[in-house]
Amino acid sequence: MTILVTGGAGYIGSHTVLALLEAGHDVVVMDNLSNASEESLRRVAELTGRTVPFHRVDLTDPEGLDRLFSSHSFDSVIHFAGLKAVGESAEIPLEYYYRNVAGTINLLRAMDAHGVRSIVFSSSATVYGDNHHAPFVEKMEMGANNPYGRTKEQIEDILTDLGASDERWSIALLRYFNPVGAHESGRIGEDPSGIPNNLMPFIAQVAVGRREKLMIFGNDYPTVDGTGIRDYIHVVDLAAGHVAALNYLTAHGGVHRWNLGAGTGSSVLQVLNAFSRAVGRELPYEFAPRRPGDIAESYADASAALADLGWSTTKTLDQMCEDHWRWQKNNPNGYAD
Amino acid sequence: MTILVTGGAGYIGSHTVLALLEAGHDVVVMDNLSNASEESLRRVAELTGRTVPFHRVDLTDPEGLDRLFSSHSFDSVIHFAGLKAVGESAEIPLEYYYRNVAGTINLLRAMDAHGVRSIVFSSSATVYGDNHHAPFVEKMEMGANNPYGRTKEQIEDILTDLGASDERWSIALLRYFNPVGAHESGRIGEDPSGIPNNLMPFIAQVAVGRREKLMIFGNDYPTVDGTGIRDYIHVVDLAAGHVAALNYLTAHGGVHRWNLGAGTGSSVLQVLNAFSRAVGRELPYEFAPRRPGDIAESYADASAALADLGWSTTKTLDQMCEDHWRWQKNNPNGYAD
From A29's CA, which of A107, A331, B37, B336 has a CA 20 to 30 Å away? Predict the structure, then answer.
């Protein structure tokens, strides 16, 4: 099959491109490079021996999308492209709705116009919001508590309505928990611009000397050690989940939502300790007050993906930290090196 | 003040344009005329002695919006434009999300770029969905049960996040119940294209001979006579609610949501009987099974609009029917006559 991967030069995108190539698919990448580097695709080519056609196209450009869909014949789309910083989304929500929601509507219109009606969408555990207790199950009502999460929720609703209206559409909504780690080669990984929003990239930058110390927001949660619990998933496992979802859609069609997580959580201190083991020394940290909107525990009920896709995570927290550290150590400034 | 009214040639739009002119405002109308006629604005001009600048612009055309905002200096926008048929929205949801949601995002971006940060938005009681019991109160969680309602819900969320991010924005979300009736002159009114989706226009077309009989969907609801209860609001009262909301925003700013309804409901048979009185003869009807998604009772808690805006409805069901019938009788084929 030929798969269009939007946002395919980004962190999860590039790992999924690699997994698709290894599974024997043809892949075309579109990305606006606003938070990604073409260097990631050069390295995927180096790892696989296959070059990936790249198009610099923005979701907000309907003509560019039309040209892209005219220039290739796609069987399916894996749609990663979008803004993803929770804090920023509260500051510039209109930009988030414009790029994520209106951008996805443009993509779906282009797909429909060109007869491509299969899509795997990057949703997020953020859609569960703060009204439920972990483990989160797919049937729970959505209720994101920030604009970023609401863009994911709106796109899920749009895709669900689209699938209900026209059975030619095949749709997978994948709710990611906390993707971390990197390909074991250390050649591709997460390269956040500015101050990292997520825990492991921040720890990695502390370890490599780019940040002074880790701030831990909240040590008085009702958890094993007082710090927040999240469900970390190795990006290589996550990429495999996309290939599995794509295969399922090809065989069965329909509209589906699956959590992609380990089904178990780790605390901030547990992650920090595991990362310290990978690095081989203690890393500096400091406790700070809880952040508004953060919940104590978030982890998946991962049983639906196992039952439907035969997919589950395979990598341990130590492997996540070792692989993340190998990438960071070899590429202290990400792809800018 | 100078007010841009999107969808200003439509049913509620044209009545609101009239009310704004009567309140001494300058008005500019944009409309794509997909479900409206410029004739409505000619008649508003005839009733008021003032012509209204009209621009045929579509919400999905960002360049057209930019030209419009460059050619006038607006103080506020009243935003009616959008698709509005519940049944159709389940058939072509992508078109609804494209025109309503992505279209509104384009409008908000144009407003922001031109420094116009005051908006009164046409929301709907549909956002309450079927998880609550009437009377519906603004603080209830939204949960629309059809794509049309979800477009309203998504736009409410976008506007709420926008207002929270930037206090320069003033935002009123008006949740209409069931607008009916027409201006007492009989010169402007509702002119649905195709088969009417709503009760009173359907009855009116039966009365004028364009439809054979009224189908009443469900006569076994737990209501006074078994037929569904809705909160009917005279369109002239509704238009006055928009002027009141605009005045409130100008004085106070902020983000607000108000039900615009009578606070009391009428059954389908009560409406049919009132319309029959207005026409002066019995009108044919037939019972049919309930429609999926319909609820037994929907009516507003109208106390917030009274407390905040000093606004409440003034017209009786008989007046609604008399005014609606005058319009229909004088214009049996709407503006096409």
Answer: A331
Amino acid residing at A126: T
Q: Does B104 touch chain A (CB under 8 A)?
A: no
Residue type, A210: R
> What is this model's ipTM?
0.96
Compute CA distances B20 → B8, B28, B33, B50, whole Å: 11, 11, 20, 11
d(CA B25, CA B12): 17
**Cα→Cα distances B4→B34, B106, B108, B182, B255, Å:** 18, 15, 13, 22, 19
Active-site residue, selected from the candidate residues A11, A96, A128, A148 = A148
Beta-sheet pairing, A266-267 with A229-230? antiparallel
Kind of pairing between the strands at A26-30 and A54-55: parallel
Q: What are the pLDDT digits (tens) for B251-289? A: 999 999 999 999 999 999 999 999 999 999 999 999 999
Domain extent listing, chain B: 2-181+232-261
* B235-B320-B233 Cα angle (round to 5): 45
- The residue of chain A with its CA nearest to that of B164 is A90
Q: Using pLDDT thresholds of 50, 70 and 90, give the confidence band for residue B107.
A: very high
**A149 at interface of B, judged by CB pairs closer than 8 A:** no
Report how far Cα A105 is from the mean position of its chain's Cα atoms. 20
Question: Which residue is associated with the tokens 């509209």?
Answer: A255
- Both structure tokens of A244: 């599995």
Question: Residue B144 is encoded by which pair of tokens?
Answer: 């629309």
Q: The domain B2-181+232-261 is classified under which CATH number: 3.30.470.20, 3.30.300.30, 3.40.50.300, 3.40.50.720?
A: 3.40.50.720
- As a whole number of angstroms, the distance between CA A100 and CA A97 comes to 5
**pLDDT tens-digit readout, B109-145:** 999 999 999 999 999 999 999 989 999 999 999 999 9
Paired tokens of A247: 């295969």
